[in-house]
TrEMBL record:
Residues 30-168 form the Putative restriction endonuclease domain. This is Putative restriction endonuclease domain-containing protein. InterPro entries: Nuclease_put_TT1808, Restrct_endonuc-II-like, Uma2. It holds the Pfam family Uma2.
Amino acid sequence: MSKSPHPGNIFLENVPWQDLETIIFKRQKNGETLLTYDNGRLELITPSPLHQEYREILEEFIIALLDLYNINYRGLGFALWQRPDLKISLEVDSCFYIQNLPRVEKLLTISLPENPPPDLVVEIDLTYKSLSRRSLYARLGIPEVWRCDENKLKIYQLNEGEYQQISHSFVFPEIALEGLPKIIKNNIKSGRVAVRREFQKWLMTV
């Protein structure tokens, strides 16, 4: 699928960190956009309704798998992660603490780098982005990233500061996950019940 910029997207350069904090505060009152900030460069993306649906459904799938395998977790959903010392700020579609859960499960506020980053971040890749988010994930130290488009799920694992694409997730090492987006794509027009039904059928094959 060809990804194109959403007409509501904004890209700015030479944005000071202090101005970024003001923008983040004001955005809390004005609905949801996906923010990426890298050393003065700022991109604000308005997710499409399809983007939102993929995010919600894939998050449901992950939670169902975690429950099925009795894996404890903390899901923070759509979240903002910042490292002022690195001049990085970005929002992720969904994120989970799994291996590092014991270090954050009792915390009401999680801050980097005082606390570990989430173990798993999910990125819905349906909209063109000017800034490379993968390099920012690496600098934040996020161990695993799932990138989901309409046809395939790609899994990236951090190794010595760089991401390598792998076939299986560290969370679910025995399951081939790449076909999950097709379950969504092939059934989303029939509604969420149809998507969940096909997901349950898929679960019986893993």
